[in-house]
Design brief:
Length: 96
């Protein structure tokens, strides 16, 4: 049920902004993504969570850096998930 709802929400926002690409973060569950050719889900990496501060910012940084490097959306979302995992595995948003 939740996955179906996330797909509907992602589709709504893509149509609202007339965007070809979109990503919807689902916290520690992962992230949905869609572009003109593909839709999918990227699960989070299983790491010990020490502090969640900055995880969303790290995800966005990874996503954007992947896109700027020319990666497909799927790979950029995967990079974002990896950076989010690194972020939660240390104290605060200034270490590491």
């Amino acid at each position: 049920m939740v996955r179906a709802l996330n797909r509907v929400i992602l589709g709504f926002f893509r149509s609202l902004w007339n965007a070809d690409n979109g990503a919807l973060k689902a916290g520690d569950k992962g992230a949905w993504y869609a572009d003109g050719a593909e839709r999918g889900f990227c699960p989070c990496h299983s790491v010990p969570e020490i502090d969640p501060v900055g995880a969303g910012d790290a995800f966005c940084a990874g996503l954007l850096s992947g896109l700027l490097d020319g990666q497909p959306l799927r790979d950029a979302v995967t990079r974002g998930a990896a950076l989010g995992a690194f972020c939660v595995s240390t104290f605060g948003d200034y270490q590491g």
